């Protein structure tokens, strides 16, 4: 073979030799790590963490947009990512015990865990013909659970979320929240509508409510005494198991500061004169008082009888909204457009300052 032909052959074969070398490197050459791996931050720009629950062992579970699920075992100081089989937004999460929990969200997705929230699997659930968004879920003893959402959807499970059934015809309404306690259940939704159940959510009947604005959350501290909150700062109270409701006066804080309880940087809250009304999106009973939260960092603190309410903000410049609040061992965990832990003692201190101000 002549030198000229060899040169021509080498030139024509060069691209194939380069490609072959790259393939070899891709399959057989293992890159050496350089420096420490960059850890993915728990909270990223654009995150929305809609639902929160605290398991009996104190572990916190958070769910949010893009199928994100985080867990913390050290009171929210550090977070771990879970393995989740979906990328749709998850709206809420609830736990039965330290191992078993369920999360629901857009596209009527339902995922369950049996290892404390480390890994999750998707389970089948009835699809709505009107809308496909589950808003909230609650668990009850012996594997019971109820999930509610848009299109009037109400789903129930009695086997720790493995199977679900629809228990009420669909309609043009969004049920925004559900609460279960001692075999009873309560659901609130758009246009001030309220449903109650006495058989663990298997059947529901509607009761009259005093407002027409949308109710966003409901909670009961026993079989009789409960609170529902909603748009425009609405607060309703019931003392007969949800059969009747009364509206309680509340005006959320405006922009003019009046007093401060601690340094806002450490999770404390700042009190304000009553004025502009903000929306209330979640409510809980902590064993001593009612706590509700909503838009622009507004927090409402109510007494056991749910008759007297104090308005506050998490900080003077807080413009975030919160769709979930759960009491922990020594703090309240709020999630929504951001996640924050508020020391319980600060909240109690703030309520005392406001009460003193009202009587001065």
TrEMBL record:
GO terms for molecular function: hydrolase activity. Keywords: Hydrolase, Photosynthesis, Photosystem II. One of its GO terms (biological process) is photosynthesis. GO terms for cellular component: photosystem II. This is Glycosyl hydrolase. Residues 245-264 are annotated as: Disordered. It holds the Pfam family PSII_BNR.
């Amino acid at each position: 073979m002549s030198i000229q032909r060899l040169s021509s052959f080498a030139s024509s074969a060069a691209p194939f030799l380069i490609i072959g070398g790259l393939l070899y490197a891709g399959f057989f050459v293992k890159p050496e790590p350089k420096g420490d791996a960059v850890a993915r931050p728990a909270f990223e720009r654009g995150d929305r963490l809609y639902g929160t629950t605290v398991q009996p062992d104190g572990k916190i579970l958070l769910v949010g947009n893009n199928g994100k699920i985080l867990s913390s075992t050290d009171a929210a100081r550090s977070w771990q990512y879970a393995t989740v089989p979906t990328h749709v937004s998850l709206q809420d999460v609830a736990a039965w015990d330290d191992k078993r929990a369920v999360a629901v969200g857009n596209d009527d997705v339902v995922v369950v865990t049996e290892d404390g929230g480390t890994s999750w699997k998707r389970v089948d659930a009835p699809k709505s013909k009107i809308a496909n968004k589950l808003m909230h879920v609650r668990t009850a003893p012996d594997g019971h659970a109820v999930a509610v959402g848009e299109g009037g959807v109400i789903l129930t499970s009695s086997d720790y979320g493995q199977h679900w059934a629809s228990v009420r015809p669909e309609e043009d309404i969004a049920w925004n929240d559900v609460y279960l306690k001692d075999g009873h259940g309560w659901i609130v939704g758009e246009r001030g509508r309220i449903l109650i159940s006495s058989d663990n959510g298997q059947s529901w009947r509607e009761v009259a409510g005093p407002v027409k604005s949308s109710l966003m959350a409901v909670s009961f501290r026993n079989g009789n005494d409960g609170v529902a909150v909603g748009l425009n700062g609405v607060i309703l109270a019931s003392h007969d198991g949800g059969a009747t409701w009364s509206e309680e006066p509340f005006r959320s804080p405006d922009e003019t500061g009046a007093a401060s309880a601690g340094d806002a940087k450490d999770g404390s809250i700042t009190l304000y004169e009553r004025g502009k009304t903000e929306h209330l999106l979640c409510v809980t009973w902590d064993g001593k008082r009612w706590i509700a939260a909503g838009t622009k960092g507004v927090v409402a603190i109510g007494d056991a009888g749910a008759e007297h309410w104090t308005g506050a903000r998490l900080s003077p410049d807080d413009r975030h909204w919160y769709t979930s609040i759960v009491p922990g061992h020594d703090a309240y965990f709020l999630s929504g457009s951001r996640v924050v832990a508020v020391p319980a003692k600060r909240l109690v201190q703030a309520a005392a300052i406001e009460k003193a101000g009202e009587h001065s």
